[in-house]
Write a structure and sequence with these properties.
It contains 11 helices and 10 strands. By secondary structure, the protein is an alpha/beta fold. The strands form 2 sheets. A 6-stranded mixed sheet has the order 6-5-7-10-9-8, sandwiched between helices. Strands 2-3-1-4 form a 4-stranded antiparallel sheet. Helix 6 packs parallel to helix 10, helix 7 runs parallel beside helix 8 and helix 9 crosses helix 10. The longest helix is centred in the middle third of the chain and has 20 residues. The protein is elongated.
Length: about 300
């Protein structure tokens, strides 16, 4: 019980819009417009209060993560018998910003209530609601008219490392299935460049799989040859994918920069090299999904 662990989640653009409505009398609206509110400017005070409330959300709500706010915009509208407050917030982070948006409009509504209570005994906060939430996995998840198919190839140089890397492979299968892939092909192969190459060609050319993940053989050891085998197979490298995997891992593990893993496309098949350790595979998959799913629409000519 407590705060969720979001350490392995990728940063994405998150947007939330919330609204609060404070019911007031029509006479109070007239006084506000005439500048006769006893505690000053209602509109500007509500805007400032909403911004401050958004920044203090994690201090007020126990299990909210403290997150960086990149944008806070507050609109205060005077209706016939109500004050309507809307707040739009943006962040580039691991979790959503909806609680910050809801807190912003709630604090603004309480501020309006406090400022108007000397002149209006009918005050009530009628509603606080979330109007929009965008971002995260659901914000970039792709849908296709057919199921995507994948394979996981574990590259192991010895029996002692094989058990560890097999765990990595099974982890990869679980994540692929979570994202809707059908994983009918799972194999373990020795650190032999020709055998790795043959398996990759079979997955791409014969089985025409959408995604092939390799686990292991990406380091600088004398037996690490997965990268060389992959480069002989791909038609085009997808350097951005490999760069993101290393950058994501480096923020968590200082040795991630030593991975030589590459990625690329052969036909309509995507090949991605992951390191061999379960931790590195977990981090790599967190960085890979869901953004990589957009590649299939691009390969089919649907644009960028």
């Amino acid at each position: 019980m407590g705060m969720f662990d979001v350490a392995d989640k990728a940063d994405t653009l998150r947007v939330a819009v919330a609204q609060a409505t404070v019911k007031v009398s029509s006479e109070t609206i007239r006084l506000i417009k005439a500048g006769k509110s006893p505690k000053g400017d209602i509109v500007e005070s509500a805007r400032v209060a909403a911004t401050m409330g958004a920044k203090k959300t994690s201090d007020l709500i126990p299990y909210c993560h403290p997150i960086p706010l990149d944008y806070v915009h507050v609109d205060v509208t005077l209706k016939e018998a109500s004050v309507e407050i809307q707040a739009e917030l943006k962040t580039v982070w691991k979790t959503g910003v909806e609680m910050e948006a809801l807190t912003a409009v709630s604090i603004a509504a309480l501020t309006v209530y406090d400022m108007l209570k000397p002149i209006d005994k009918t005050l009530s906060i009628e509603s606080v609601c979330l109007l929009q939430k965008v971002g995260g996995i659901k914000g970039v998840q792709e849908k296709y008219g057919r199921p995507l198919k994948a394979a996981v190839l574990v590259v192991s140089d010895s029996a002692s490392r094989g058990e560890r890397e097999d765990k990595s492979g099974r982890l990869a299968v679980d994540v692929l299935e979570k994202y809707g892939f059908i994983v009918d092909n799972y194999g373990v192969v020795a650190d032999d460049a020709s055998r790795i190459e043959a398996e990759l060609r079979r997955f791409c050319d014969d089985l025409k799989l959408d995604l092939v993940l390799t686990c292991g053989g990406t380091g600088l050891g004398p037996c690490d040859v997965t990268v060389e085998a992959t480069l002989r197979v791909v038609d085009r490298e997808t350097s951005g994918i490999s760069e993101v995997l290393r950058a994501y891992g480096q923020r968590r593990t200082p040795t991630a920069m030593l991975s030589r893993g590459v990625s690329g496309v052969r036909g309509h098949s995507v090949i991605v090299n992951l390191p061999g350790s379960p931790k590195a595979v977990s981090e790599g998959l967190a960085a890979l999904f869901p953004g990589i799913l957009h590649i299939y629409g691009m390969l089919e000519g649907h644009g960028h």
